[in-house]
Write the structure tokens for this entry.
Amino acid sequence: MGLHVHRAISWIGRAETCGTDDDARFIFLWIAFNAAYADEGEFQTIQPGERAAFADFFGRLIALDDQRRIYGAIWQRFSGPVRLLMENRYVFNPFWQHHNGITGFEDWEE
């Protein structure tokens, strides 16, 4: 976990140097989030419980965010880019798993 925290803090530091470049700040904060959350052993596929683990991890972050900074960043400041990403199947790993014929991803649209 220490390496995850170190990487996340490093990316947060990079985000803080962006000045008024909100797009760059969002990208670096997203990388920081993934650095903290990532499991190095699972880069190629998403395991069946991965969505639940992601939801649990993000739920804990939200619970600790008493100033609602995450909500503000996602839905007020960056709502357009976030919505575009959410609607883009090409950035969704299960789409590619299904597209490449890997079994177990037939329900990728759910």
Remarks:
- The chain has a mean pLDDT of 81.
- Residues 1-38 form one domain.
